[in-house]
Amino acid sequence: MSLISPFSRRLYLRIWLAVVGGVLVFAFAVGMAWRWAAEQNQQQPPSREIRITDAAGRTLVDGVGLRQRRDPSEGVLYRIESATGEVFEMHLSPRPPRPRPDERGPAAWFRPPFGFLWMLALVGIAVTVGVFPIIRRLLQRLEQLQRSVQRFGEGDLSVRVAEQGHDEVAALARQFNAAAARIETLVQSHKSLLANASHELRSPLTRIRMGLELMQGGTPSPAFRAEIERNIAELDQLVDEILLASRLDSGAADVGTVEPVDLVGLAVEECVRVDAELHVGSGDDADAMAAPVEVPGVSKLLRRAVRNLLENARRYSQGEITLTLTREGHDAVLRVCDHGPGVPPAQRERIFEPFYRLPGASERSGGVGLGLALVRSIAARHGGSVVCEDRPDGAAGACFTLRLPVTR
């Protein structure tokens, strides 16, 4: 049992044995069919037209000859019945013995019927030997995939499978690599989120603890209460954004119901909160100003994205903030522009990373570094994108462009 079990668990050996078994069954079936045909031929002795003439060409016997059953060692006997009803017998002497293999002529085992059997045997051996390396090469790729899956399950998230060919095994390898890359990205993202969240949570907690120690049981001043409330609000915002970022990164399906969202009404409400100026449409086109801009999406997520862009602009802007909402082709385009210090071109992608702050930015300026990262995650969730650009008029400041497809 210990010898059979490992052998039977090898898929390539099982496939090879199946091919060999098929060849053997085919050869056996052909042999049985040939034997049956030979037996049928012996059961029905053949008849033929026989005509015997003399040296002058005169016909002596003309009729149908029927081969009679008898021992092959006694020769062949034909019973001939002529057209006139006369019966004749023609006796042929036995064949001379077959030559031995060392005599002249082909070897005995090359002549029928053994020649055909030898041919089947040679074909079976050729198939048995030829298909083994082909099957072994195919199944080696499955074994490599199995070893990679095992290593991945043991914790090596960087393992990948070589993608060879265009068959089902190659497609399976590509799907495994894509899934492995996605899982590795999620794990690394969660590790980074946990590490940065622990650091960000520690800052307001430390300020609250220091404030409580300084208070020493006395009545807190209004300024002190305001500081404590600000730190608590910062903690609440951080926890909320961390939870939302985690759910978006993991692809959670229960983030809200997808429905038509009126971006104009949503933008009006959010602009009022931060005292921003809203422009809908392009130019002075009254129809464009009145036309609604709807996109399919989760209302609370889109509201969070617009709010984060406006709050980020208000945090760093030194002048008015404008939100422009237009429709370009199949996309709804929302631009939030400010008059702040702007974002250097080299930093315009990094500011969308979780917990990343521009050099020189202070924690006291507000924000926890997750706002823009959430905007990009929400945009991706809705099939859109967000980028940081220069202001269209060339003035100082930054402009964040959020594109969302009108149809999905």
From TrEMBL:
GO function term, MF aspect, one: ATP binding
Q: What membrane topology is given?
A: Multi-pass membrane protein
Pfam families from the UniProt entry: HAMP (PF00672), HATPase_c (PF02518), HisKA (PF00512)
Catalysed transformations (reactions): ATP + protein L-histidine = ADP + protein N-phospho-L-histidine
Instruction: Report if keyword Signal is assigned.
Output: no
Which positions fall inside the Histidine kinase domain? 196-408
Q: Kindly state which keywords UniProt assigns to this record, in alphabetical order.
A: ATP-binding, Cell membrane, Kinase, Membrane, Nucleotide-binding, Phosphoprotein, Transferase, Transmembrane, Transmembrane helix
The record's listing under Gene3D superfamilies reads: 1.10.287.130, HAMP domain in histidine kinase, Histidine kinase-like ATPase, C-terminal domain
Q: GO cellular component terms?
A: plasma membrane
Where does the chain cross the membrane?
12-37, 116-135
> PROSITE patterns recorded for this chain?
HAMP, HIS_KIN
Query: Any idea where the HAMP domain is?
Result: 136-188
- Subcellular location(s) per record: Cell membrane
Reported EC number(s) for this entry are 2.7.13.3
Q: Which residues form a coiled coil?
A: none
Q: Which PANTHER family match?
A: SENSOR PROTEIN CREC, SENSOR PROTEIN RSTB
Protein's name according to its UniProt entry:
histidine kinase
